[in-house]
């Protein structure tokens, strides 16, 4: 496999339709994110190698309601809605999982968030983990909310320092 390259992609099914990550919850989120990207509400990025999409993700800057455990790590003046770089979806194609791509991609996003925090006014990096990915995000240093959503996912937060 050639060295993967990262690029912004157009949200058309013909480009991502064959993407399978073997987690139905994440695949449903991918579909939602692609629809949002089609309406111009998100940017969809791909990591590709040898002409194939091997991973994809979306990011957005905004303020999200934070769990009290996250707020405890911020200054007392911080509002309940914390400025964050949110990752609505991140997935690695099932044929390329367990090869370190997800970790490399997350390390890239963590470093990007830390570098851009002063420019963007963000305090945290946030995402939602599925039961299958919970341990992975813990290993990267994300704190998790105690609240579990009906689909089994939970909010994950990293305070940017």
UniProtKB/TrEMBL annotation:
The keyword Transmembrane helix does not apply. This is N-acetyltransferase domain-containing protein. Transmembrane segments: none annotated. The lineage of its organism: Bacteria, Thermotogati, Deinococcota, Deinococci, Deinococcales. Keywords: Acyltransferase, Transferase. The keyword Acyltransferase applies. Residues 9-161 form the N-acetyltransferase domain. It comes from Deinococcus koreensis. SUPFAM superfamilies: Acyl-CoA N-acyltransferases (Nat). Gene3D superfamilies: 3.40.630.30. GO terms for molecular function: acyltransferase activity, transferring groups other than amino-acyl groups. InterPro entries: Acyl_CoA_acyltransferase, GNAT_dom, YpeA/RimI_acetyltransf.
């Amino acid at each position: 496999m050639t060295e993967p390259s990262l690029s912004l992609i157009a949200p058309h099914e013909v480009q991502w339709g064959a993407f399978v990550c073997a987690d139905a919850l994440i695949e449903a989120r991918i579909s939602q994110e692609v629809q949002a990207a089609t309406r111009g509400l998100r940017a969809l990025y791909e990591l590709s190698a040898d002409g194939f999409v091997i991973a994809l993700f979306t990011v957005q800057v905004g303020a999200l309601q934070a769990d009290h455990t996250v707020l405890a790590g911020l200054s007392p003046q911080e509002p309940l809605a914390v400025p964050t770089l949110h990752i609505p979806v991140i997935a690695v194609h099932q044929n390329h999982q367990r090869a370190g791509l997800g970790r490399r991609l997350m390390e890239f996003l963590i470093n990007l968030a830390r570098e851009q925090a002063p420019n963007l006014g963000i305090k945290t990096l946030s995402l939602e983990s599925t039961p299958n990915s919970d341990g992975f995000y813990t290993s990267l240093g994300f704190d998790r909310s105690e609240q579990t959503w009906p689909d089994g996912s939970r909010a994950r937060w990293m305070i940017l320092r």
